[in-house]
Amino acid sequence: MGILYFGDNLDILREHIKDESIDLIYLDPPFNSKRGYNVFMMTPKGHESDAQIMAFDDTWHWGEEAEREFSEILHKPNTDVSEVIQSLRRFLNESDIMAYLTMMTNRLLELHRVLKVTGSLYLHCDPTASHYLKVVMDAIFGKQNFRNEIVWCYKRWPSKQDNFQQMHDIILRYSKTKDVTWNQLYDDFTEQTKKRIKGGMKIEHIIGKSGKILIRPTEEKSPGVAMCDYWNIPMIAGQAKERLGYPTQKPLALLERIIRASSNKDDVVLDPFCGCGTAVHAAQNLEREWIGIDITSLAIGLIEKRMKKAFPGISFEIQGTPKDLEGARNLADRDKYQFQWWACYLVDAQPYQGHKKGADSGIDGLIFFQDDFSKGAKKIIVSVKSGENVTRTMIADLKNTVEREKAEIGLFVTLANPTHPMITEAASAGFYESPRGQYPKIQILTIEDLLSGKTRPQYTDISSGSFNFKKAETEEKRVEQDRFKDF
């Protein structure tokens, strides 16, 4: 009933998603805000942590990739899009915003292709590029298929600046055709109207010539006031149970409203920029099938943990993450940071610092665990090596890091097989004496053995991992997923 893809959504859409196979698309792409966004990991009480991982850098520049994608757009059958994108380039030149619009246009063309004739697309954006994106969307979907500009209004702590406080985002809603799936949603009546209903008056809302909402008696009870395009839904508070630490996380209430309005049970919902997975969580909650795509293994790991906590017993596919040694090597060659994040999740560790510049601390991941009810969380250091050459010195360095950080155990996760001197050096560190048993102080774990299940980190955690990741609340309704069909 669900599938996660790790990779560039343009490639995934072209290679795996068939024409007119999707009922509803929601996307919350980067806004070209020219800033980096960090994921805030959990830190048990008493432990200082720098575990803020850069999830993505929302800065775009014109270069070879943008030029290649621009050329692709010019050769698409939709000549309106070609005209629009060329006009935008003449106006914006080879600027950062033009690079962003080129990237988005190519992906929106693919999203239009995979959308069913009854389908809708909701594009979440802000004033940075919403006006340009609407022009592009008009060219792709047709001006006649523009349905709504939804204003999501929220409150947050104001900052001192020389502008009015920005307290809303824009969501552009388009349909594929006029024959669109639509479920009318309703807001509650005002207290005054509720009193009238309680007094026995059945009412109906109609629109008068002046545009005002009028009320008249009717034989059937009205479900409420037809919902407008101005949505007042609170952002997720900093300490809310729903918050998972992902920088651009959207509230479940927002996504559930979209999914209820524009899809039905068992329809397929796609989020091609799925981040921490709010759209797929909402889709699962509402018994829709779903597809999520993200370009970082960090996001895929967060979503996997979120869904398994929220829906115990759930099963879904994950495509694109390494399944064997060859896949792991390929990922390491392409992006060492993605490999480190993936390897950390392989041993249930929090990634540490990520792209943070500066001296190498010798720490790629952290695990907090508890093996004594009378004491708090203890710490495990994870060092990940993606190279083919590993040495005894690397084990010695990990021993020093474990000592410096006052950790109990060090895990050395390696793509290459360890040498005999490395194994000897690790053994010389001795054992961590736990109330629950005796465990090697330094443990060498190969990617191949971890993938095959031959080995796993050795320690006891009576907290069942609760110190390591912010967990989604378990949903009351537990839905068992079937294996997702091939699109």
Largest sheet: 9 strands, mixed
**Mean of residue pLDDT values:** 85
**CATH fold type of the largest domain:** Rossmann fold
Residues in helices, as a percent range:
25-40%
Number of E strands: 22
Strand percentage, roughly? 15-25%
Which term fits the overall shape? globular
Structural class: alpha/beta
Brief overview:
The chain has 487 residues and is an alpha/beta fold. Helix content is 31%, strand content 24%. The chain has helices at 9-16, 64-74, 79-92, 96-114, 130-141, 191-198, 252-262, 278-285, 297-310, 325-334, 336-346, 392-404, 420-427, 447-452, and strands spanning 2-6, 22-27, 35-40, 52-58, 115-125, 146-153, 168-175, 186-187, 203-207, 213-217, 225-226, 230-232, 268-271, 289-294, 317-319, 350-351, 365-369, 378-385, 409-414, 431-434, 437-440, 442-446.
Characterization of this structure:
- With 487 residues, the chain is of the alpha/beta class.
- The protein folds into 2 domains: 2-185 and 227-319, Vaccinia Virus protein VP39 (Rossmann fold); 325-452, Trna Endonuclease, Chain: A, domain 1, CATH 3.40.1350.
- The protein has helices at residues 9-16, 64-74, 79-92, 96-114, 130-141, 191-198, 252-262, 278-285, 297-310, 325-334, 336-346, 392-404, 420-427, 447-452, and strands at 2-6, 22-27, 35-40, 52-58, 115-125, 146-153, 168-175, 186-187, 203-207, 213-217, 225-226, 230-232, 268-271, 289-294, 317-319, 350-351, 365-369, 378-385, 409-414, 431-434, 437-440, 442-446.
- The strands form 6 sheets. A 9-stranded mixed beta sheet has the order 12-6-7-5-2-13-14-1-15. Strands 16-17-18-19-22 form a 5-stranded mixed beta sheet, with helices on both faces. It has a two-stranded antiparallel ribbon with strand order 3-4.
- Strand 17 and strand 18 (378-385) form a beta hairpin.
- It is globular.
- It starts with a strand and ends in a 35-residue tail after the last helix.
- Residues 33-42, 48-56 and 478-487 have low confidence and may be disordered.
